[in-house]
Amino acid sequence: MSATPPDTTPAARQAAVPAPREGQAPAPLGRVEFHLQFIRSFADPAFDAVRGALVQVEEVAWKNYQDGRKAPVTQKAGPGFADPDYDLSLEWKATRDRLLAAEARQQDPATRSRVLLVCGAARNDGSCPGEISKTWRMTQWCKEVLQADNIEADVLDLSLLTSSYDLHIHPCKGCVSTAMPLCHWPCSCYPNHGERQTNDWMADIYERWTAAHAVIILTPVYWYQTPSVLKLMIDRLVCADGGNPDPTSTHGKKAVEAKALELQGWDYPKHLAGRAYGLVVHGDVAGIEGVRRGLSDWLDWMGLVDAGAKSRLDRYIGYYDSYAQSHETLDRDTAMQEEVRNVARAVAQAVKRLRAGKLAPPDAQLQPPRPK
Fold it and tell me: Looking at CB atoms within 10 Å, which of 33, 83, 209, 271 has the fewest?
């Protein structure tokens, strides 16, 4: 006797939407705890002259925290959204509009070719290390190669997170794991003004990825992994792979609505697919191959296309030699210097093929039976 097939109609799927599991988040801060958190930023005695004004600011911040004023400035979403009457964050919409404009420029055959160079080291001479990173030097070599080929090189130096005033890439909150449509493209988790999670650099970074025809990521190895400044950006790019371009379809962060949308069938749009990429990974003791493979797998998953074997480089600089002389060691390693430049040359050729409509992996037209 055959079993009755499951009911897979939209109504049945809607009825089967699981309720979000809850109970992990701590209780909101009390007034005393909030004060201690708030005032830590103003411990410098230089603020003593304006303590009265800070008290007033703190009272407003406390009220906003209690009221959960995540996006205090909104406008009606308007035409083109699932719910035109939804109060959409003005900041999110401005970022989204810049991404649409960047995408149009990127696809315009009349525009100049553009490669995003991501310097993934946390070190620079404007913060505690007191010296530039070797990764920065390699980034400049790639920039020179690209510019000599009349390609615009946009340098994204992630070490600015360690040396710039109040600049942040806030951590990914993992909305994807609740339901893919809850992860918005671009990310709408930040800014969260009520919790003082502001000055999020990703609004600018999304635009720079979107505008590029290719990306080259250059990174050292920190403890067998990418540096935290690079990993922060990688995690926040999850919305580029399957993210929901319409926050009104989930009315902001309504988990139940997002689960229902996913169960109706989600198409997992790849917002950065088709761009070319190259990699430069360097270390001094261990971990270069694992980091390079991990980055390649991530970029492949997002639908980017590698620029060939010579565009994916991993090398040791001064294997087990002193840190103090590592720049001098790199000075002597002219073969590696040329290998780094070859990464940029390979990507430059890939960009030309891309813009001529000739760069596509052989399996580009195949549809995955299990998209995610």
Answer: 33
CA dihedral 114, 120, 122, 123 (to 10 degrees): -70
What span, in angstroms and rounded, lies between the C-alpha atoms of 221 and 287? Answer: 6
For residue 291, the model assigns a pLDDT of: 98
Who's near 366: CB < 8 A, 6+ residues apart? none
Q: What is the 3-state secondary structure (H, E, C) of the chain?
A: CCCCCCCCCHHHHHHCCCCCCCCCCCCCCCHHHHHHHHHHHHCCHHHHHHHHHHHHHHHHHHHHHHHCCCCCCEEECCCCCCCCCCEEEHHHHHHHHHHHHHHHHHHCCCCCCEEEEEECCCCCCCCCCCCCCHHHHHHHHHHHHHHHCCCEEEEEECCHHHHCCCCECCCCCCHHHCCHHHCECCCCCCCEHHHCECCECHHHHHHHHHHCCEEEEEEECECCECCHHHHHHHHHHHHHECCECCHHHHCCCCHHHHHHHHHHHCCCCECCCCCEEEEEEEECCCCHHHHHHHHHHHHHHCCCEECCHHHEEEEECCCCCCCCCHHHHHHHCHHHHHHHHHHHHHHHHHHHHHHCCCCCCCCCCCCCCCCC
Q: Are 177 and 260 spatial neighbours (Cβ–Cβ below 8 Å)?
A: no
Asked whether 206 and 95 are in contact (CB, 8 A), the reply is yes
Q: What's residue 8's pLDDT?
A: 47
Question: In DSSP terms, which residues pair with 283 in a beta bridge?
Answer: 316
Q: Dihedral sign for Cα 356, 237, 105, 101, please.
A: positive
CA angle 97/240/301 to nearest 5° reads 155
Is-contact 154 114, C-beta < 8 A?
yes
Give me the pLDDT at residue 9, please: 52
pLDDT (0 to 100) of residue 6: 47
Quote the pLDDT of residue 50: 97
Per-residue pLDDT at 338: 98
- Which regions of the chain are under pLDDT 70? 1-15
Task: Pull the structure tokens for residue 269.
Answer: 């749009």
